[in-house]
Specification:
Blueprint: H1 35-42, H2 48-53, E1 72-77, H3 81-97, E2 105-110, H4 116-125, E3 131-139, H5 145-164, E4 168-175, H6 178-184, E5 185-187, E6 190-191, H7 192-210
Parallel strand pairs: 1-2, 1-3, 3-4
Antiparallel strand pairs: 5-6
The protein binds 5-nitro-6-ribityl-amino-2,4(1H,3H)-pyrimidinedione.
5-nitro-6-ribityl-amino-2,4(1H,3H)-pyrimidinedione is lined by residues 77, 79-80, 111-115, 136-139, 141, 145-146, 149.
């Protein structure tokens, strides 16, 4: 197993990071360190891995929350605009607080969530954007229409980002009731638009680090020992 490397992908303060393992511990059948494998290895001592994490800190690549020099697209669905306008305001707030100016942002309005993927894909193909926020709100009705719109919107956005290589941020609320949507557009559940704006900055920065043509190569953050 000597020489094998593994990369743990996690976001922010995600607890999984503490379970990161490297070559020294890769002695199970598969060299991909699954949590199940880790649990087996710690044999009932759930804190064994956590204890080890103090001394074992692989380098980590992160996207800074700094929008300077980045360009953002925002595709907003008009359907349920009572909600989507609030999500848009949240996303713009996050971009502005991250240092973006109006000139760095372009907003495109589409009729409904179902139309988001094609426009996001076209925007991505222009090469003008480092990341694109996709904003919509789908509310469950009495028929299966909801399920079709939700699944096709999510599938379309994922396909478009994988095809284009431009990060597309999924800010499409899928709620059973209007109340649930209101909670997530600025009330009890925070504002998902704001979270998406931050994700757009983080993903744009990360994406630049991994882009072949980028002058800035991936700089690793070395943890302090
Ligand atoms: N579009 C939404 O964004 N949210 C909804 O809740 C919704 N419902 O419930 O129908 C919705 N439908 C419209 C759809 O996205 C398309 O715009 C339409 O089907 C035309 O293609």
């Amino acid at each position: 197993m000597a020489g094998l490397q593994c990369v743990i992908i996690c976001r922010g303060n995600h607890g999984l990071r503490k379970f990161a393992v490297g070559p020294k511990r890769l002695d199970c059948a598969s060299h991909v360190p699954s949590l199940a494998c880790l649990r087996r290895k710690t044999a009932g001592d759930a804190f064994g891995v956590l204890k080890m994490a103090g001394a074992f800190k692989p380098s980590t690549i992160r996207g800074e929350l700094n929008a300077a020099g980045l360009r953002f697209g925002i595709v907003v669905s008009q359907f349920n605009n009572f909600i989507t306008d609030r999500l848009l305001a949240g996303a713009l707030d996050a971009l502005e607080r991250s240092g973006a100016t109006e000139k760095q942002i372009e907003i495109v309005r589409v009729p409904g969530s179902f139309e988001i993927p094609i426009i996001a894909k076209k925007l991505a193909a222009t090469n003008r954007f480092d990341s694109i926020v996709c904003i919509g709100c789908v509310l469950r009705g009495e028929t299966s229409h909801y399920d079709v719109v939700v699944s096709e919107t999510a599938r379309g956005i994922q396909l478009a980002q994988l095809d284009s290589g431009v990060p597309l941020i999924f800010c499409v609320l899928t709620c059973d009731t209007l109340e649930q949507a209101i909670d997530r557009a600025g009330l009890k559940g925070g504002n998902k638009g704001y979270e998406s704006g931050l994700a757009a900055v983080e993903m744009a920065q990360l994406s630049r680090k991994f882009s072949k043509n980028s002058a800035r190569s991936a700089t690793r953050v070395r943890p302090r020992r």
